[in-house]
Amino acid sequence: MAAAPAQATGESQLGSFGPVRFPVYAPSKHFERPPREVMTAPALSRVHGFNAACCRPLVFLSERRCAFAAGKLVVALDVDRGEQGFVVGHSDAVSCLAHSEEQAFGASGQVRLAGAKYAEVLLWDSQTLQVRGSFSLHKANVEAIGFIQGGEVLVTIGDDRDRTMALWPSARDGYFRSGRKQGAPLAICSAYKGGAVNGVLAAPYGPDQPVHFITFGVQHVKFWESSRLAPSVDGRRGAFGSEGVPKQVVCAAWVARDRLVVGGSAGEIFFFEGSRAIRRVQFQSCAIAHLQPQTDALAVVHANGACCLLASGQMIQWDIADLNGAPEPRMQTPLAAGQSLYGSSLILASKTHLMLMDISKGMQNAQNCKVLLSQPSEPLAAICAHPVEPRIYTGALDGGVRCYRNGDLRPIESASFKVSSGVTCLAVSGVAPDSEGSAWLAVGCVDSTLSIMSETTFHYVLRRTLSNRGAKLTCARFSATDVSGAHPLWLAVGTDDGCIHTFRFKDATCKSSVHTGEEICTKVATLRGHEAPIYDVCFADTLPCTHLISVDASGKELAFDVPMARRLPTVALVRDVPFSPWTAPIGWQVQGCWAGYAPSPKAALPHRRFFELPGRQAIAVTDSSGMSLEMYPFPCPEATKSPPPRLEGPGAEISGLLFSIYSDNLLATSGTVIFSWSWPQEGRQRQKEVERGLAASPLRPVQGSVIFDTPDGQKRALAASPKLVESRQRPRSAAGRLVKEKENAALGATEPAGKALEVSKRSQSRDKIAEKQDLQTPPPKRASVEPPASQMMRTPPPAKKAAPNPPTVQSQPRRAWEEGAASPASPSKACERVQSPEAKSVQRASSNTAAAGSELAKSGDTRQWIIEAKAPAGLPSRARKSSDMLACKIGAAHEQERSSGEVASDTRRLHEDNEARSRSIQERHNFDSVGFLLSGKAQPNVAGVDRLEDRYQESRAGKFQYRARETDDCFEVEALLPGGKLTRVTRNPLRRTLCFEGKALYGLASSLGPIPAEDEHLVVRVPPGFDIVSAPAEVVKDFEQGSCFVALNRNGSGGRSDRRGAGVPSAEVSDL
After folding, report:
1. What is the 3 state secondary structure string of 140-167?
2. What does residue 335 show for φ and ψ, rounded to 5 degrees?
3. Cα–Cα distance between 231 and 190 in angstroms, integer?
4. Do 636 and 585 form a contact (C-beta atoms < 8 A)?
5. How far apart are CA 459 and CA 125, in angstroms?
6. Could you tell me how many helices (H) and strands (E) the chain has, helices first?
């Protein structure tokens, strides 16, 4: 990792951080980036919002599909299912749209990108949404676009001084097919030099008629005519008559080939015959949004939602707000445009809504209105997510706080509201799942007003102006939430004047709407030290939360001690403190994200947004333009070897970034549009498999590791994990191969001649190698007549029949046992059955061979054994042992001196004792901290109580609270787990302990999502003289509230007794 840059000594001297002028401190410990696969970039999954400033912002693609512009994209929307598709290829925001039903082509123009020479026009297939061609001519923004001549010619108009108009071939085939003379337009002329052009509209088309179309805009309507095969066009302005010219012509509709109706910005309606207006009417002073010609009638939609139907001798009026499903009037804005298809469907667009109406029975008979999209009227400035529920909040400069369902971004109107002024920052605190209280919601405004309220009831508990000078609030952040209430909740709010205001909450969650002000939230301090507006604040991801880092617009980073309300002397003091999710633009964690950025002469940090993706080891960063996202590994202390993946879509500067753990989506706000990216399902499944170790070798899972400091340097220790798949072992001795071959021959196994020869050669080669290594084991000797398989396990071999001695093996590790010597694992020959080393070698040779066993004879011969017949397919069979053949307990009476019942009792007791000891060892291993570090699991919290006080008072052990005392007749223990639930209470008579087990919600319930509960254990040792074996005197339990009371009798006799009558405690752990 690159070393931290030194402190700048001059105004022109910069650090190695590109435009950053302040020192960056590396971590004090060695950092090693965890190995991971190639980063998988998410795919665009959902877009909510549209470019309201776009000329003709939406078009119909088919009867149930429409398209609208959103950022750099053209979004195709299925109005019934809500599915979306995207046309990708623009380098800047889309400015206009058009569609040809005859050619099934769509066209879109864009804003000219800064530094680019031309503004491109894309021609795309409306079915597949694939780009079929691009046209580059206009050196300014593309202002209007439209198809003429049955879709064979595309007309584009630029936003330059002359309003340059170009005609392009756009037919699928024929003379004007797309691609003919690629790059050269059919004709170029000036559309109108007196002002902006708002649209292009083609006249009804006939195959033998000349081409007619109009352009309209500021104080003009212009009629154009062109021959079908001639590349030139001729145009003339329309005459409005003596009643005056409208300020702007905003919409137009053809009634017939020679009759036209246009609407003005002041509510005027002009009827044209040819190129002259013959009539003018005006019902309202509101602009005309849409004109819909009908049979012997004309339907007019005004910008305020009022509609009227002009028929012969009568006029019918109604309001769109009265229809079922229409948006609320307080959230509605003036209508801007409309688009109809076949006179059956109508889509109306305002700055905030896209609405669909069914007008198949006439506009005057429309009953329902469906809202396809809703958005704020002003740009979005903030975004945050609920910690445990699938919803997000956005704040816009129009003062609206809108709530959306996470995933499909469907609006939740009941959780949306408005505040006094434009919203500039939002923050939601953490809360535990199924908690009685709700999260806190903080809303910061442009007029320096901070509002703190309940996230569910929206009742204010604090509303205050933080700056007397009216400084804008720029950012807000909650600390990690301790749901147990042991540590307070903090809120930090940054302002435009360089101050940070901190607040402390009495309760971590909002449980009542009665208390307000100082009783719930207290203003603690104002942290100073910045000279520029605060750009980002971030709390440490610790409990208690004591540290805060902040970055201003000049790139200055400071660290603060929040409870003490003081500034730390250097940021190096918090370089090892965890901050999650990371959002600061400065730090060693994101130093590699600035690679390639040249130092800037201005004392200002480029506005780049950062947001860590917890669980994916990645961080999303906006690029230098602010309109695209780049994905870097996290931490990223140095430049990446390959270019980072880029996410395109936004057409304006990204104002907010958010990663939702709940839906695994990355969201960005740009302008009035919300963009959502999600990872493919197979990529998500792959990541889960890698984390669980299922995607590694089939023989064993991925092993976690821990780096330890040793005298020889740092070394990595791997966890000892069990095998997932048992590998098939290969025979390693000639004896084992010989037995295998005989068994296969007995079962009738056949192989091809060539394969058998090859196997024979390999077998001979292995035999020679084994002889050279002197590791050959003598082959076993079979009995001449084998008894039936049913008698193998029951009939012992003849006593005092010795087997011939095998040849001596020189290799010491392979040396057989001495004749007559007892097995190392056998304490007594008279009551144990063992296997010879030759039999064990045969058993290791193949997993399909039967298990070999033998019984020691009274003569002491340990070399005799019998091989069973081949067992069925599956696991190797194991010789069953009778209960009276187990090893006797050391110190017990001899077998001949005791009855069979006593032996069985001892055997059962030995079973219980061994089982309890094994379970105790396993539990100690599970609770071992090093074992949990190696396995990668979370270490449970275990608290033990050994010495008890005589007083019956409340004490604390770990997260548990307990009270214990001894009375005359019983021993009482009462345990409480605050903020958690008990799962079970067990007793261990062997160790004389009571164990209370539960799950505590003590942890980090951050704003990103819920954190799993931690396991808690309280072990209380029972003093001598109390009966822990028999039933307790009293048990009062309330596991849901985390409490349990246990009382044990004194001098009980509930333990298990042997035949001699002595009370022996049971070793098994039982549930109370």
Report:
1. CCEEEEEEECCCCEEEEEECCCCCEEEE
2. -70, 145
3. 15
4. no
5. 51
6. 7, 66
For residue 241 the two structure tokens come to 């008559």
> What DSSP string describes 976-1001?
E-TTEEEEEEEEETTTTEEEEEEEE-
Q: Rounded CA gap, 589 and 31, in Å?
A: 10
DSSP string covering 76-91: EEETTT--EEEE---S
Torsion of the alpha carbons at 836, 840, 842 and 848, rounded to the nearest 10: 130
* 592, 640 contact by CB (below 8 A): yes
937-963 pLDDT, tens per residue?
444 566 666 545 444 556 777 788 888
Asked if residues 832 and 887 have their Cβ atoms less than 8 Å apart, the reply is yes
Residue 497's SS3 state is coil
* CA distance readout (Å), 1057 to 910, 1030, 1032, 1052, 1066: 14, 12, 18, 13, 9
Tell me phi and psi for residue 460, to 5 degrees.
-70, 135
Output helix, strand, coil percentages for the chain, rounded to the nearest 5.
Answer: 15, 35, 50
User: Are the beta carbons of 85 and 446 closer than 8 angstroms?
Assistant: no
φ/ψ (deg, to 5) at 543? -130, 125
Structure tokens belonging to residue 504: 């402390």
CA-to-CA dists, residue 925 to 712, 761, 930, 940, angstroms: 28, 49, 9, 12
Q: To 10 degrees, the CA torsion angle through 126, 129, 134, 139?
A: 90
Of the ranges 384-393, 669-678, 835-844, which is most confident? 669-678
In 3-state terms, what secondary structure has residue 628? coil
Tell me the C-alpha distance between 857 and 834, whole Å.
Answer: 11
Beta bridge partners of 522: 504
Which DSSP string do the residues of 165-223 spell out, in sequence order? EEEEE-BSSSTTBTTTTTT--SEEEES-SSS-EEEEEEPP--TTS-EEEEEEEBTEEEE
Q: Confirm if 374 and 384 have CB atoms less than 8 A apart.
A: no
Q: For residue 64, give both structure tokens.
A: 């149930």
Query: Who wins on pLDDT, 45 or 845?
Result: 45
Report the distance separating Cα 102 and Cα 927, nearest Å.
73
Cβ atoms of residues 50 and 66 within 8 Å: no
Write down the pLDDT at residue 882.
44
Q: Which amino acid is at 210?
A: P
- How far, in Å, CA of 341 to CA of 66, rounded? 10
Strand order of the β-sheet with 1014-1021 is 941-945, 1014-1021, 993-1000, 980-988, 1070-1071
Residue 340, beta-bridge partner list: 346
| Residue of 286, 294, 292, 253 whose CA lies nearest to 270 | 253
**Joined tokens for residue 623:** 């690029």
Measured distance CA(683)–CA(701) in Å, rounded:
19
Q: Give the pLDDT confidence of 314-353 residue by residue, as tens digits.
A: 788 888 888 888 888 777 888 988 888 877 889 999 989 9
72 in Cβ contact with 113 (< 8 Å):
no
**CA atoms within 13 Å, Cβ hemisphere of 755:** 4
pLDDT-based confidence at 387, cuts 50/70/90?
confident
Asked whether 826 and 767 are in contact (CB, 8 A), the reply is no
Are 513 and 459 a contacting pair, CB within 8 Å?
yes
Task: Report how far residue 552's alpha carbon sits from residue 500's, in angstroms, rounded to the nearest whole number.
Answer: 11
Tell how strand 276-282 and strand 288-294 pair up. unpaired
List beta partners, residue 62.
Answer: 65
CA angle centred on 337, ends 331 and 338, rounded to 5° = 105
| Nearest one of 249, 259, 337, 335 to 293, comparing CA atoms | 259
